[in-house]
User: Fold this.
Amino acid sequence: MGLFNEIANSRDHWNIYVPMITVSRNLNDKFYLRASSSLNVINSIGDNKVNSLTYLSFDWSAHYNIFNAHNKLNPYILVGGSYVWLDWLGSGTLNAGLGVNYWFNDTIGVGFESIYKYSDPKYDQLLTHFQYATNLIIKLGKNRRPNSGKCYY
Assistant:
């Protein structure tokens, strides 16, 4: 099965650590740009247990809202790139992903996403992998959600 083998087996194949920090900027109802950083400790790679490898990632991405940004349920697709260090050996990745945000109001929401991070096989220090995130979203600034029917000046 390869890459998708036991993808839902979180006990044996997932590494969970601290939150991802993200900053994004809306361009319009359909597009926004995002920069993020995550820190993790890797204790297993597939079926292999490893000794606490440090995982540090700096990502950038462009997101396309499938619906308009003012919908309560807002699925999106993303493309971008990362520079990832695994135990301080670094490599770039090309990223693609899917996610969905649910908005409780104009400023607070939750999100779920899956990002596929492709690493060129010639760089053997980093494997192609998935990164999953559950997000608490707090919008700041004068324009919280485009076309929400309210102005914040």
